[in-house]
Predict the 3D structure of the following.
Amino acid sequence: MAAAARGGAERYFTRWYKPDVKGRPCEDFCVLQHSNRICVITLAEAHPLLQSGKTIKSINYQISANCSRLQNKVSGKSKRGAQFLTELAPLCRISSTDGEEYTIYSCIRGRLIEVNENILSNPTILQEKPSTEGYIAVVLPKFEESKSITQGLLTQKEYEEVLLKRLNSSS
């Protein structure tokens, strides 16, 4: 595909995947890593919320009684005040109209720069444009960890092989 025809997500970001997070089948996430080391957390194509027939009922960034990702206030060049996330830190919980609830995890260590508040008022963009306007959050890994954060994540090709194996095992 010519560079001009590709969107910003493909042109400036490297896609990394985390399949079956916390052992939950098909709950896959995608980490879009920019060359400046900022990472955008999104749902991977195979995530149950992106399958046909799923309708999102609610999105909640309130993780526990004392922790809301919406309270994350970042300031300055060093991103003071940002909440620190581990790989399995929950970012939000998404409920679908069929009663299922999905916890979205950060998949990487770093500082939470922002959460996408637009999906709260318009949850359909999460399903229609998961790699662009429908992202979940933006995370900034520590500089010294920016090369190693992708360990344990899959490349696009490796992820496609996982999807193929799932397809073959279900048929």
